[in-house]
Amino acid sequence: MSTLLIRQARLVPVGPGVTAGPSPRPVDVVVTDGRVTAVGPDLPVHPGATAAEVVDAEGRWLIPGLWDQHVHLGQWTLASQRLDLAGARSPEDATRMVAERLAEQPGHPVIGWGHRSGGWERDVTVSELDAVSGETPVVLISGDGHHAWLNTTALLHLAMPVRDSVVREAEWFAAYARLSTLVGDDGTSPAAYRRALDTAASLGVVGLVDLEFSGGAADWLHRWEQGCDRLRVRMSTYAEGLDQVLSLGLRTGDVLPGVADVTGPHDDRLQMGPLKIISDGSLNTRTAWCCEPYADAHRLEYPAGQPNLSGAELRSLLERAHAAGLEVATHAIGDAAVAAALAAYATTGARGSIEHAQMVGRADSRRMAELGIRASVQPAHLLDDRDLTEKIWQERASRCFAFRWMLDDGVELVLGSDAPVSPLDPWLAMAAAVHRSADEREPWHGEQALTVAEALAASTDGWGTVAPGHPGDLVLLDADPYAAFGSTAEQGAWLREMPVAATYVAGEAVYGAGIELG
Fold first, then answer.
1. Alpha helices, DSSP H only, in 421-507?
2. Which among 151, 296, 334, 496 would be 20 to 30 A from 459, CA to CA?
3. Residues 6+ apart with CB under 8 A from 498
């Protein structure tokens, strides 16, 4: 039996209706075999406990562990190796940055990430990328992940038809898995995953939902064996992998086969997650499916965006998943896509989430609550999308990132990052939900903001104030997250700098063991 005793911790209140108040008096918390078993003052030490099993929190603040409900973990591990194009303000900026990288590393393929071409004044061409790259493969992935700008060499290498425009949506998602044939897979090795998981733990993250495009149960089990058994992981599948998941009889919440052989029969940290469906595109790529045309519709093949699946195809996937016990995570960014996804959930009885729900009508917010469908949202996206939304969705901006509507309507709200689209950082997500601005400007539609308490509650996978029966997934903080009582700007700044002292998963330290008593 493993036991962890945390002494003198202040429990941060988490849950519906919580408001900031006086700092609570310290208590002790006992975790036995991965579950919280006791909370109270002056609890006894388990007989035979080692020094490593007793932690003096010294009045630090204790919260339930944080979750990121939407991560593309393989892409996130690769982010540090890619050419950062976030600062490119034009096609010329991007090609200049590519030329500079090629001058530094001649002959090495260039994978770029992060440009936001939706705000550029013109469309890009393959030929202008060819002009600076020659025969070296170049793949520049948009910051929303929904399209890529490739040169001709890269198009040929990835077995795609040559064209003079970008590769979008389903065609790009299918090609993404082949990128390792250009650059190898060092960036997605178990060691790379381990580094990413350790960094997440340092921010208080105890679990994540991995919505990566490639891989499967066998890949995750291999990583688990190679030291990636750090956090809780829910692995998704896409339609292409659904048959394999069904053949294994996996239901959402099931422990992946083989975990018991690696880390023991009671390890439930690596589980099957949802079926992921990408029902429409994105704002930046102008493929999000909307009820009304984009303001610059004259530039677009599809003036209001378009769905990636027909209604019949969407319903068929939901039916198959629901019958097999799988939840469904449906990507829907435009308001037409949200409405169509909710109609499919209602028809099929499927359970799960709308991922992003970036633009919604009030009626659809209420419909989401009626159906019991979660809204899995990424608040940090609003920091990047603010200006473009005002430009191409105009008056519809008031219905974007409508967190207040959703919460007031009774929708279960959970936060994530969509890393690498935004950093895997729950404190940044919370700060964005609270302040809704990344610069000196006033909050963007501040009427849709969350309170600090609401943002924290949406980040803990549904677990409230630490109590007996909870998983031993705990985070000790060096500061009270509710301590900033001023403006939302001050509250957001406070959250972004929140110092994490230690993180525990199932009662085991995954970060900050240095505070343990010797």
1. 426-435, 452-457, 488-496
2. 334
3. 204, 427, 477, 479, 481
